[in-house]
Specification:
The protein is mostly helical. The chain has 10 helices and no strands. Helices cover about 50% and strands about 0% of the residues.
């Protein structure tokens, strides 16, 4: 893992912890909303729900989002990245739910992204090596990527970065943060069933298992009924 990757990971983790937004409740979509907009691109609608994509993204777009998010939050041995946390699944579900108004934003953004990559590197984004992917992302972030009209290069970058953070650290019920990987990364214990008086007075990091999310609670409730 390069020093560039480490710096990026550290920045995103600190941004989340510093903002006190690990759970991200105010930003989350309704993961149960699975209906695809009837006006979307027909090729996207032909893909049935599956692991990592299917409610909105086709396979090609899912691969691009996965690669982009992984460069924003790269994994390392013992440290989960965007791919490990199933960030693409979070974004995919969101675009068929609470973020449905961003469907055209993503379609056009992805089309412009690959057009820029072909113009600059003669390949699509997913076919570039990590260093060239980073160069493309930097160009977007700085607004220097040519050929972007709407969304602008910076707007597309900022939106994807925000959604990557949400997919890493939101409750797993929303499709990301697989196996609580994002919460474990920042030392967030999730919703515990009980906190004892000793727990509340302890000044050390809280590490007791299990970590319980809304997804686990919903599953347990279903089994009891």
């Amino acid at each position: 893992m390069s020093s560039h990757d480490t710096t990026r990971r550290t920045f995103l983790v600190r941004a989340v912890v510093g903002a006190g937004s690990v759970a991200g409740v105010g930003l989350l979509p309704d993961a149960s909303a699975q209906t695809v907009d009837q006006h979307q691109d027909p090729k996207a609608a032909t893909h049935a729900p599956g692991a990592g994509h299917g409610t909105f993204f086709n396979a090609q777009d899912a691969a691009t989002i996965t690669a982009f998010a992984e460069r924003l939050m790269p994994g390392a041995p013992g440290k989960p990245g965007a791919r490990d946390a199933a960030v693409v699944n979070y974004i995919d579900l969101s675009l068929s739910g609470a973020y449905a108004e961003l469907q055209d934003f993503y379609r056009r953004g992805l089309t412009q992204l690959d057009a820029y990559c072909r113009m600059t590197h003669s390949e699509t984004f997913v076919r570039l090596d990590a260093s060239r992917q980073d160069a493309v992302i930097t160009a977007l972030e700085q607004g220097k990527a040519r050929g972007f009209t709407w969304p602008t290069a910076q707007a597309f970058f900022e939106t994807l970065r925000t959604h990557t953070i949400e997919g890493m650290f939101a409750d797993p019920v929303y499709g990301g943060n697989k196996d609580f990987s994002g919460w474990r990364l920042v030392g967030f214990p999730g919703g515990q069933a009980v906190y004892t008086p000793a727990d509340l007075q302890n000044r050390q990091a809280f590490t007791r298992a299990p970590m319980i999310g809304l997804q686990s609670q919903a599953s347990n409730s279903t089994q009891k009924t």
